[in-house]
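[SOLVED] Predicted holo structure with zinc ion

Edit: marking solved, answer below. Original request kept for reference. I posted the sequence and ligand SMILES and asked for the 3D complex as structure tokens.
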Amino acid sequence: MKAARLHAARDVRIDDVPTPRPEPGEVLVRVRAVAICPSDLRLYQDGHASGVVPDHPMIQGHEFAGEVAEVGEGVDGPPVGTPVAVEPSWHCGECDTCLAGHENLCRNIVFPSFPQTDGALAEYIACPAFSVAALPEGVSFVEGALVEPLGVGIHAVRLSDVRGDDRVAILGAGTIGMCVMLVLRARGVSQITVVEPIEARRRWPAELGADPVVASHEQLLTADFEADVMFECSGDNEAVEQAMSLTRPAGRVVVVGIPHPDQVTFDSTIPRRKQLTVIFSRRSRNTLHEAIGLLATGEIDMGALPVRHYSLEETADAFEDTAERRGDMLRAIVEP
Ligand SMILES: [Zn+2]
Ligand SMILES: [Zn+2]
């Protein structure tokens, strides 16, 4: 099969590699859409994922959908040809964190696209059957690929314990910020403020009902704005302190974005004097069926998010366009 493999930082090549076979308990997926996540971009640009260096030319991509091409031994369905989405967080189900219900923090987690496990930027990928769910009619492969970031949004909102009458703010109107916002709205949260420096990206949260949508956190600070619950979704290093400074005393901050660089500094006086609860959200846990349900019922319309389409051969362009943080797209979609 053809696969886009990262040979070194910014060096993606289309290689012929053996097509994976589904092991017992696995499903082989013919990949139809892969969304490029900023976390994939980090590995693409830096050549390592927060210090973990690939030991082989890696296939990246963890936000994907496709159709079942083959089922391994012991798997009853979904049948060959079924369109499916995949939760790419493959836990062991046996370690102490799994048994405590924190499968996303599994000590033996396998995450396709994180070294050393190959991801989905290829024609096929083998996935554990438990991580695969059928896409209902009317839900496209692109929306199927966005089930993973939607799951990240669902997980973050669950952790936040937000209530319908809370005043909420989101830093960053990229895909994750927008997924958090869509989930909040589906949960009946109506007071949503969004901070997004890229002008063209302010359009989407405004259209979806965020008010106000501003360019910088200073605008909110000078207006004495305070959130009950704050979601940091920008991944900007300084945004963690900004989020804290905009949260009311005894409020909650959920850090969803992956700070870049990894080391974060903040004035500890801010969260200390306000006794803030700061929660770091990790990927998603058990969100696959809920995410698909929200799409199937139309409660959430991922079709509203702007994407651009690329062939597998154009994978490097998809990464470079993602790096540019273009205003006119939130996700680059590679269609192998
Ligand atoms: Zn992702
Ligand atoms: Zn485990």
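OP edit: The chain has a mean pLDDT of 96. Thanks to everyone who chimed in.
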